[in-house]
């Protein structure tokens, strides 16, 4: 499973990228707002750091305007993925932009039917939002499983990009379900390393190394 980092925080992207943890980046208007930066400027900086796909989201609501914005965003770098919402206009924009050879991420997906439409419109990525479904006592992971099954039934090449990831467990659950990509905030990716038995075991090894007077270099 590929890891995308869901942020516009340059320092966090750089840190995880140096560890080989960043296969791509996703942003959205809320993350751009949080960064306090201009969208074109911060997106360009991200594309200079990361070689994988970098999603940048349109803000228009009508297809023609989304297409114009998508073309402008795609001028930033070759690895730009134009992110469009899962509306009828978004699907129209997806079809036009993918026909032009651009990568498109269809976002705000909350149902298997929506994911089916995005695949038919030629989406490069579909972004089902797990956390926002879980927030409503619905089953975000079940949606990942349903989309995987449907895409596999018909050989759709649209990649399942699990989004709205809130916990480290979401990452392993998505991997088990066969998501192609999971995009998570830097804090969630970092939390994946944590295990209480690792900490406990390390404390014991450190104490014993001290008692034994072990010195390696
Ligand atoms: C990804 O593309 C989305 O922008 C993101 O995962 C949304 O996450 P949230 O529901 O935590 O805002």
UniProtKB/TrEMBL annotation:
Keywords assigned: Cytoplasm, Pentose shunt, Schiff base, Transferase
EC number: 2.2.1.2
Major localization class: cytoplasm
Entries under Pfam families matching the protein: TAL_FSA (PF00923)
Catalysed reaction equations from the record: D-sedoheptulose 7-phosphate + D-glyceraldehyde 3-phosphate = D-erythrose 4-phosphate + beta-D-fructose 6-phosphate
Keyword Transferase: yes
GO cellular component entries: cytoplasm
Functional note: Transaldolase is important for the balance of metabolites in the pentose-phosphate pathway.
The protein's name in its UniProt record: Probable transaldolase
């Amino acid at each position: 499973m590929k890891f995308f980092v869901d942020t516009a925080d340059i320092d966090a992207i750089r840190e995880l990228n140096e560890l080989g943890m960043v296969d791509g980046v996703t942003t959205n208007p809320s993350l751009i707002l949080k960064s306090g930066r201009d969208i074109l400027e911060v997106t360009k900086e991200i594309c200079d750091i990361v070689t994988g796909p970098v999603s940048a989201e349109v803000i228009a609501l009508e297809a023609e305007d989304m297409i114009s914005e998508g073309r402008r965003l795609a001028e930033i770098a070759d690895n730009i993925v134009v992110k469009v919402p899962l509306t009828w206009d978004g699907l129209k924009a997806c079809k036009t932009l993918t026909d032009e050879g651009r990568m498109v991420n269809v976002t705000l997906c909350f149902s298997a039917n929506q994911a089916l439409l995005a695949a038919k419109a030629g989406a490069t990525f579909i972004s089902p939002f797990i956390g926002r479904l879980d927030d409503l006592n619905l089953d975000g992971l079940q949606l990942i499983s349903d989309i995987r099954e449907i895409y596999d039934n018909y050989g759709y090449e649209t990649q399942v990009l699990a989004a709205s990831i809130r916990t480290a467990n979401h990452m392993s659950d998505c991997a088990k379900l066969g998501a192609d990509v999971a995009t998570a905030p830097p804090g969630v990716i970092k939390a994946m390393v944590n295990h209480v038995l690792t900490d406990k075991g390390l404390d014991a090894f450190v104490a014993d190394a001290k008692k034994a007077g072990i010195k390696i270099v």
